[in-house]
Amino acid sequence: SDFVEIIREVLRADHDLVIKSAAPLAFSDRVFGSLDLHLVRKCPCPVWLLAGSNEVKGRRRVLAAVNMSRDDEVQHETNRLIVQLAASQAERMHAHLSLISAWQVPGETMLRGPRTGLTAGEVDHLVADTKRKQQKRMYKLAADAKLTESAYELHLLKGEPVAVLDTFIRENEI
Fold first, then answer.
1. 69 Cβ neighbours under 8 A, 6+ residues apart
2. 153 in helix, strand or coil?
3. Helix residue ranges, H only, 96-119
């Protein structure tokens, strides 16, 4: 398929970035098509998707979506590069920068079931702790990318990454 060929080329030529026009799904309100989503999830380097106009009511916007689900050096460096590229573009465009990451507690629904023996309060504490750790890692990423707190807006979205990212983009007209 097309996304596999793009990834093969990235690996063959050791590309640092893939830039692609976003292709919305036909007969759908989804912002990104299947190829876009596969690239964002599987490509070993940052993927820059250009989706229509990024100006809403005279306000230019740049969105950097990072994957914080893995806590290894390769993923951290990829995320740092994404944030640096987006920040550079936002600065050039005099645009607002949004940093976004999706998070979830694996098996949360099951953990809230009767068979685990956990109370609702214990699961709530686990969820809050997971969100707090994610937020701390996002602030560290922004600091590693040398961003000041006034240079960006942080969005931690709870849920499955593709769904919450798509919803965020539509609701915020990015």
1. 103, 161
2. strand
3. 108-111
C-alpha 31/C-alpha 41 separation (Å) is 15
Q: Residue 154, SS3? A: strand
In sequence order, which ranges of 30-119 are alpha helices (DSSP H)?
A: 34-42, 73-93, 108-111
Q: How many angstroms separate the CA atoms of 45 and 43, rounded? A: 5
Q: What pLDDT, in 10s, does the model give residues 28-53?
A: 555 566 777 778 778 888 787 766 55
pLDDT at 55: 46
β-strands 153-158, 47-50 pairing: unpaired
- Regions in the chain scoring below 50 on pLDDT: 54-56
Contact 131, 157 (CB under 8 A): no
**Torsion angle, alpha carbons of 37, 39, 41, 45, to 10:** -150
